[in-house]
Amino acid sequence: MNSRTDLRNLTQDELVDYVESLGQPGFRGRQIMAWLYRPGITNFAEMTDLAKDFRQVLSENAYMSSFNHPLTERSKDGCVKFGFRLEDGKMIESVLIPEPDRNTLCVSSQVGCAMNCSFCLTATMGFVRNLNAAEIVNQVCAAGDFLRAEPESERIGPDRVTNIVFMGMGEPLNNLDNLLKSLSILTEQRGLDLTNRRITVSTCGIVPKMQILGENSTANLAVSLHAVNDETRDRLMPINNRYPLAELLEACRTFPMAKRKRIMFEYILLKGINDSNDDARQLARILRDIPCKINLLPYNESPTLPYRSPDHQRILSFQKILLDARYSVFIRSSRGSDISAACGQLARDENADLS
């Protein structure tokens, strides 16, 4: 492992402290932040408003990490799945979802996942380790490099990442410190200059950490619900044994957010398990006093898991009950399923060929 300091693992305030530890005035840290995420900047020699001797000191003590030469797979619908090899040889995946007016990147926060949700392929990996802030942010940087290198004629959306969803591998709130650091870098004007309203953090329901997230970030919150009673949710999501539905919903009611904002509840529809009209009516009841939107996700089937997706008419019937109850309800179209890039399908083989 590299013994030098990875500057992409530092927030702007931490960069200020770092340069002061090298005997430099704090404003040099802000100057460095303005260079670190500029496209095409790969070494300190290119940071031309820093003194040459200081650039030499930086090169001896620090470095700028990046994800180079990722494995890429393109779906027939335009999605791109990236496989990134980390410094310790572990693998993670991200998914770029292009649309004419935006590019959404689904990023990972951990190698594997400890939540063991029974319908998710990532769960079959088990938990390996947390990603540091640089490993989170570098997914965004690499996707941006990919978009800028694409011929304009082949590009579906803009030439940059515009939206980020923490819905890849891992449970973001179980890596809260690095999540918050990465959010600071992503939204820093001198960093990647994204707005919090275009960033969504998804959780399966780590109740105590939801409050901490809301107190320290204005990013959007998505909650993976997937069931309307404890019996079903216990079976699908073991986290429910620790933080049952009543606790989770109370955490959603008290989640700190602006009046105009709403929580997004994610609900995977599993045939014969959670997709009945009674389930829909119960969902409408339990969310009644929470400002929210509902995302319905037809299950992305896998031959190694026992679940199936309901037919289209069942999905529409479920949605109609919620619409009639005056909820904003969206049926998320599956993207990237032909390259195993759809929701719940990320499970990277560490021996994958990155050549």
Question: Overview of this structure, please?
Answer:
The model is unreliable at about 350-355 (pLDDT under 50). Strand 3 (about 70-75) and strand 4 form a beta hairpin. Helix 4 crosses helix 5 and helix 6 (about 205-215) runs parallel beside helix 9 (about 245-255). The protein folds into two domains: about 5-65, DNA polymerase, domain 1; about 90-340, Aldolase class I (TIM Barrel, Alpha-Beta Barrel), CATH 3.20.20.70. It is built from eleven helices and 14 strands. The longest helix has 17 residues, at about 135-150. The chain has helices spanning about 10-20, 25-35, 50-60, 135-150, 175-185, 205-215, 230-235, 240, 245-255, 275-285, 310-325, and strands at about 5, 60-65, 70-75, 80-85, 90-100, 100-105, 110, 125-130, 165, 200-205, 220-225, 265-270, 290-300, 330. The chain has about 350 residues and is α/β, with parallel strands linked by helices. Strands 3-4-5-6-9-10-11-12-13-14 form a ten-stranded mixed β-sheet, with helices on one face. A two-stranded parallel sheet has the order 1-2. The relative contact order is 0.12. It is about 30% helix and about 20% strand. The protein is elongated, with a radius of gyration of 21 Å.
The beta-strand count equals 14
* End-to-end C-alpha gap: 21 Å
CATH classification class of the largest domain: Alpha Beta
**What is the mean pLDDT?**
93
Sketch the major β-sheet. 10 strands, mixed
Number of domains: 2
Portion in beta strands: 15-25%
**What sort of overall outline do the alpha carbons produce when their principal axes are compared?**
elongated
- CATH topology of the largest domain, what is it called? TIM Barrel
Rg over C-alpha atoms, rounded to the nearest angstrom: 21 Å
